[in-house]
Amino acid sequence: MNFQLSEEHLMIQRAARDFAQNECLPGVIERDEKQQFPREQIMKLAELGFLGMMVDPKYGGSGLDTISYVLAMEEISKVDASVSVCMSVNNSLVCYGLEAYGSEEQKQKYLTPLAHGLKDGELYTGAFLLSEPEAGSDATSQRTTAEDKGDYYLLNGTKNWITNGGTASVYLVIAQTNPELGPKGINVLIVEKNWPGVVVAAKENKLGIRASDTHTILFNDVKVPKENRIGEDGFGFKFAMKTLAGGRIGIASQALGIASGAYELALAYSKTRKAFGTEIANHQVIAFKLADMATKIEASRLLCLRAAFEKDQMKDYTLSSSMAKVFASETAMWTTTEAVQIHGGYGFVKEYHVERLMRDAKITQIYEGTSEVQRIVISRTILK
Ligand code: CAA
């Protein structure tokens, strides 16, 4: 057992912190208000090698471990969770899925530019298309169909709440091919956004992570070549579950960052703001809130790092990633709400950042598996 981060880990953490402070903090309030996608920041993330952090350098990645990813996600999410969700989806849902289960041709063609985050000098990212109007938590109820037409699939359907939906170049689409086989009839297909029949529909007007790019995507008779199916026929649901286990480490780390960002602001504020003749941190009612925040955040961090460690050790991390996600996201919601409370009236206005962090925290309890879904995964595992 060793709780020490390596020199390399500390270097990544510093780089992410500098990036967050220098590139994300300026304009974060305005981007949130205007729902303006942080393109410039994401381009810089690509230059830093943070869009394919864990991908093998032979496919254009940075070859780092999952611990580094958690550290970077925490630092960036402290400041701008709209930037970090784009980073998380590209790293853990798209690049990981392709690297772990894609064919050599698929890796050469798609993974390499996705891990760079750039192609021909332009932003090149991916999105993960599982959720549908009537298939959120109940993910096996896929209505999108991928009809087997011999040498291609004919794709039809609607996908909802897709992160990077309008800006991504490549979609990993989960769709039903053989409904009579249930989850075993589901496939995952690589679809290029600019193919005929792909429609980027409405952009969502969201409570939080407002600068991230979330769309409905429609498929109308899209022809997908057979070689763009990932894995064997019927592998799509298992692919989604396995990939989401890693994605949940990313979102847990995002929640951790949102919580620690709010905690740091509340701590600093409570040491300067005076009430009843002293700094408010000297009132036990505030000091105890800070103590509980610090404790829950540290527990979240350890859960995230443990899940990352298990992934790096090639162990089964399904349980640990669900535990990290449910605990960190609930910590983020509680901590940010208390941070607003500590700031009082100032917490309710945009300039103090904590109201945005509170709005951003909510989604971490919903996407990549709600808190209820995490409890399904955890309880099924421990009761098995
Ligand atoms: N690894 C491998 N296989 C798995 C698995 C896992 N972790 N979990 C389930 N499976 C397999 C099961 O073994 C089963 O296969 P067999 O019949 O061969 O045994 C098959 O998948 C079906 O599994 P279940 O019977 O357990 O399915 P279920 O209907 O009870 O659902 C669930 C399980 C955990 C609730 C799942 O549906 C789930 O995770 N739902 C949430 C979906 C989700 O996270 N959506 C997020 C959308 S993506 C997103 O948010 C991205 C973004 O843009 C930010």
From TrEMBL:
What is an example of a GO molecular function annotated in this UniProt entry? acyl-CoA dehydrogenase activity
Which cofactors does it use?
A: FAD
Give residue ranges for domain Acyl-CoA dehydrogenase/oxidase N-terminal: 6-117
Q: Where is the Acyl-CoA dehydrogenase/oxidase C-terminal domain?
A: 236-382
EC number(s) for this protein? 1.3.8.10
Q: What is an example of a Pfam family matching this protein?
A: Acyl-CoA_dh_M
Q: Which of UniProt's keywords are assigned here?
A: FAD, Flavoprotein, Oxidoreductase
Top-rank lineage group of the source organism: Bacteria
Q: Which InterPro entries match?
A: Acyl-CoA_DH_CS, Acyl-CoA_Oxase/DH_mid-dom, Acyl-CoA_Oxase/DH_mid-dom_sf, AcylCo_DH-like_C, AcylCo_DH/oxidase_C, AcylCoA_DH/ox_N, AcylCoA_DH/ox_N_sf, AcylCoA_DH/oxidase_NM_dom_sf
- Please name the top-level EC class of this enzyme: oxidoreductase
Domain Acyl-CoA oxidase/dehydrogenase middle intervals: 127-222
Record's family? Belongs to the acyl-CoA dehydrogenase family.
What name appears for this protein in its UniProt entry?
Cyclohex-1-ene-1-carbonyl-CoA dehydrogenase
User: Source species, please?
Assistant: Flavisolibacter tropicus
